[in-house]
Structure formats: structure tokens, C-alpha cells
Amino acid sequence: MPYVSIKGKKLKLLIDEERIKSRVKELATSIETDMGESFIAVGLLKGSFIFLADLIRHINLPVKVDFMWVSSYGSKTISEGHIRILRDLSMDIENQKVLLVDDILDTGYTLKEIKQILMLRKPKVLKTCVLLDKYERRKVDVEVDYTGFRVPDAFLVGYGLDWDEEGRNLRGIYAVEGL
Ligand code: 5GP
Ligand code: MG
Ligand code: MG
């Protein structure tokens, strides 16, 4: 293994590269079938960028890509309970099919608020996809159309997810031990 610690904390492998790969393919197949025609994939920065990149390469439809950058944990590991848009979409989504993609669903505030904001722009369809679901920590009800893995309540890094900007390049998903 290339490295198994960040800032002196040990990382425990939770989901390896191969499992991620095959699950991402399954999700892509469902999304392709359900969408059935061209759509805009909207990734939430920064955490979703690797997942989104892998996902869309398994979808055989015309896909446009856009990103939205919303406030995240930063160097803290507790959610503020609300989100802030740091950079908005570059595209107009009115009357378009949209797939909103995020790395992980935790309290649910982020996805719920972004969904509401995007719905005001009148997309033809708005579907949501998250790679990971920390279901035990949900604070608000939010419907998600596609979920990769249900995961335990731990702080996770890798495959795009960071700990204070480190660890995004890890190929698997890891739990930070002793936080
Ligand atoms: P929520 O608004 O659902 O509480 O939080 C969702 C956002 O929090 C995710 O998009 C992600 O940026 C961040 N987040 C939640 N849990 C984790 C985690 O275990 N690891 C990392 N790196 N980010 C997380
Ligand atoms: Mg995020
Ligand atoms: Mg982060």
C-alpha cells in the first residue's frame, strides 16, 4: 500500500478500488437506463470530482458536465447545518435533465438545500446520486435516487474525499482512526 496515514493518523481501508469500480459501473447503468437521453451531470466540488469522472465514463449518453462549489467541513469535522455557494453553475439547467452528484451524504443538509436551489431553476428532471451514505447521521429527510454504499459513522477519506485537503488521491475509501 502506498501510504496508510495522514497527519500521523492511521487509515483503515473500508472499500477497496475494485468494489468501487464495480459499484460505479452498476450505478452508471441504472442512470443511463433511467435518464435515457442527454443530461447535465452537476458535481459538487471538491469531493465528487473523482466519482463523477469515473461515473460519466460508463454512461453511453450525451453528458454535459458542470460543477457547483459549496462550503464544506474545511479543517473542521462538524457540519454547520447550512451551506454556502462559493461558485455557482456555469450552465442554465432550465428544462434540462440534471443529475446532481455528491461524494457523501451525511446530515443531508447539503443535498437538501442544493436540490431546493436547483429546483427553483426548473430543470425537466432532477435526480441525485451519492457514492456514500452515512445514514446514521441524517438530520433532515432527503430523497436520493442512486446510492453507492451505506457506510458507518466514521470520518472517511479517499476517492475524492479529503481530510483537510489531503487524501483525495487515495484509490480506496478509508476511515481515519482515532479522530
Ligand atoms: P451533509 O450536508 O450531508 O452533512 O454533508 C455533506 C458534505 O460533508 C459532503 O459533501 C462532504 O463534503 C462532507 N462530509 C461529510 N462526511 C464526510 C466524511 O466522512 N469525510 C469527508 N471527507 N467529508 C465528509
Ligand atoms: Mg461536499
Ligand atoms: Mg472536505
UniProtKB/TrEMBL annotation:
Record Pfam families: Pribosyltran
Gene Ontology process terms (BP): GMP salvage; guanine salvage; hypoxanthine metabolic process; IMP salvage; purine ribonucleoside salvage
GO cellular component, one term: cytosol
EC number: 2.4.2.8
Keywords, comma-separated and alphabetical: Cytoplasm, Glycosyltransferase, Magnesium, Metal-binding, Nucleotide-binding, Purine salvage, Transferase
Any one GO MF annotation of this record: guanine phosphoribosyltransferase activity
Coiled coil: none
Catalytic reaction annotation: GMP + diphosphate = guanine + 5-phospho-alpha-D-ribose 1-diphosphate; IMP + diphosphate = hypoxanthine + 5-phospho-alpha-D-ribose 1-diphosphate
Gene3D superfamilies named in the record: 3.40.50.2020
Cofactor: Mg(2+)
Pathway where it operates: Purine metabolism; IMP biosynthesis via salvage pathway; IMP from hypoxanthine: step 1/1
InterPro entries the UniProt entry points to: HGPRT (IPR050408), Hxn_phspho_trans (IPR005904), PRTase-like (IPR029057), PRTase_dom (IPR000836)
UniProt main location, coarse: cytoplasm
Family: Belongs to the purine/pyrimidine phosphoribosyltransferase family.
Protein name per the record: Hypoxanthine phosphoribosyltransferase
Natural source organism: Hydrogenobacter thermophilus (strain DSM 6534 / IAM 12695 / TK-6)
Gene from which the chain derives: hpt
